[in-house]
Write a structure and sequence with these properties.
By secondary structure, the chain is mostly beta strands. The protein is built from three helices and ten strands; from the N terminus they run E-E-E-E-E-E-E-E-E-E-H-H-H. A four-stranded antiparallel sheet has the order 1-10-3-8, with no helix packed on it. Strands 2-9-4-7 form a four-stranded antiparallel sheet, with no helix packed on it. InterPro entries: Oxoglu/Fe-dep_dioxygenase_dom, TPA1/OFD1_N, uS12_prolyl_hydroxylase.
Length: about 180
């Protein structure tokens, strides 16, 4: 962080509460003059947060220009009184928040330190790789999705087989695969 260059006096700060089921998709935080991101965790100091509760800050390496890897390279639990700090750089500072699966909420103060000008932000010349820019400026139209009948199953069937549920349970919380949730 000491290599980030000059900062101005502007600091943005917000409180974040992630109750059970909440998450944040992968992004790089590049908006305006943001230069440094920080997260201070306010979780219960009397009880350590466990990985089973979810809510980890996931840090992703680049898979290519403006593209995060599929899996995170590091996961940081939201431990009480801990601070995460990282540089904001277009198409580089990829991170996400894993789904909160426990009963406790993931609580934090989160914010950004800013550069004096847009030109002084890290990777200014690579802003086209920022996740926000990729959303706002589509490169080309997506091809149409063509429905194809599932092999060997009735086309009208919306029921999931035991095998379907087994495969899905590797990726989706069982709470979302219950018969009540699937209705």
């Amino acid at each position: 962080i000491t290599q980030c260059g000059d900062l101005c006096d502007r600091v943005d700060l917000s409180a974040q509460v992630y109750p059970r089921g909440s998450h944040l998709l992968c992004h790089d935080d590049v908006i305006g003059t943001r230069k440094v991101s920080f997260i201070y965790y306010l979780t219960d100091p009397e009880e350590d947060w466990s990985s089973a509760e979810g809510g980890a800050l996931e840090l992703y390496p680049r898979a290519g220009p403006g593209t995060p890897a599929v899996a995170p390279s590091k996961e940081l639990l939201p431990l009480a009184d801990s601070l995460a700090i990282f540089l904001v750089e277009p198409g580089v500072s990829f991170h996400a928040v894993r789904e909160v699966r426990g009963e406790r909420a993931r609580v934090s103060l989160q914010g950004w330190l800013h550069a004096r000008s847009l030109e002084e932000t890290l990777g200014f010349e690579s802003r086209q790789f920022a996740t926000l820019q990729q959303i706002l400026v589509p490169k080309e139209p997506c091809p149409a999705v063509v429905a194809a009948p599932a092999g060997g199953q009735e086309e009208d069937s919306n029921e999931l087989s035991e095998e379907d549920l087994k495969v899905l349970s590797e990726w989706i919380s069982p709470a979302y695969l219950s018969p009540q949730a699937l209705q």
